[in-house]
């Protein structure tokens, strides 16, 4: 394991730094093949002088054979938060998804949860996300997509590449089953 991977793993299991997550989702067709991209960044503030003040960055991505853009936007955030091994991290999430940002900031998701997500899509992912969300101190920041923000653009590249990578597609079984049932 490389030095920065080791330090990143140590950071994610301790309370040593503010975490930034940049996220994006993409799909080719809606539904269609899709992917997510996530970048986790932090400035090391721990006790190891070799890494003190250095930027530590890790990229995550994955693709699915049939999904939607909104599901991939949710997955990008979920994967980033799942990388954090301990609760109560200070996390700023940057996303170009008004669906994700507004549902949380405007508290729509809490109403959806109270009503059992009646008539709402992506219940499985929203429950997964909110279970992670409650364990951290999170600030959400909307960034305009495709507007030249370097880290948002990189997340988009990761998501699009994963959506096209048929050899590594995962199966979004919840979505595909719900689609078959007409939910």
From TrEMBL:
- CDD domains for the chain: RNase_HI_prokaryote_like
Is the keyword Hydrolase assigned to this protein? Answer: yes
Any idea which GO molecular function terms this record carries?
magnesium ion binding; nucleic acid binding; RNA-DNA hybrid ribonuclease activity
GO terms, biological process: DNA replication, removal of RNA primer
Which transformation does this protein catalyse, written as a reaction?
A: Endonucleolytic cleavage to 5'-phosphomonoester
Query: Ranges for the RNase H type-1 domain?
Result: 15-164
Which parts of the sequence bind Mg(2+) 1?
Answer: 24, 73, 96
What is the main EC category here? hydrolase
Keywords associated with the record: Cytoplasm, Endonuclease, Hydrolase, Magnesium, Metal-binding, Nuclease
Q: Which InterPro entries match?
A: RNase_H, RNaseH-like_sf, RNaseH_domain, RNaseH_sf, RNaseHI
Give the EC number(s) listed in the UniProt record: 3.1.26.4
Q: Which Pfam families match?
A: RNase_H (PF00075)
Protein name per its UniProtKB record? Ribonuclease H
Name the source organism. Answer: Sphingobacterium allocomposti
């Amino acid at each position: 394991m490389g030095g920065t991977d080791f330090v990143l793993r140590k950071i994610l299991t301790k309370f040593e730094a503010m975490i930034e997550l940049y996220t994006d989702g993409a799909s080719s067709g809606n539904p269609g093949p899709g992917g997510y991209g996530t970048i986790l960044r932090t400035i090391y503030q721990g006790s190891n002088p070799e890494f003190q003040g250095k930027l530590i960055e890790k990229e995550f991505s994955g693709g699915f054979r049939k999904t939607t853009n909104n599901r991939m936007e949710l997955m990008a955030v979920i994967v980033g938060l799942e990388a954090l091994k301990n609760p109560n991290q200070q996390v700023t999430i940057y996303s170009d998804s008004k669906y994700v940002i507004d549902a949380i900031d405007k508290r729509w998701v809490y109403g959806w949860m109270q009503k059992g997500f009646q008539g709402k899509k992506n219940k499985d992912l929203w429950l997964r996300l909110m279970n992670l969300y409650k364990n951290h101190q999170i600030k959400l920041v909307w960034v305009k997509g495709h507007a030249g923000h370097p880290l948002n653009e990189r997340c988009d590249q990761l998501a699009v590449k994963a959506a096209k990578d048929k050899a590594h597609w995962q199966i979004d079984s919840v979505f595909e089953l719900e689609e078959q049932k007409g939910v």
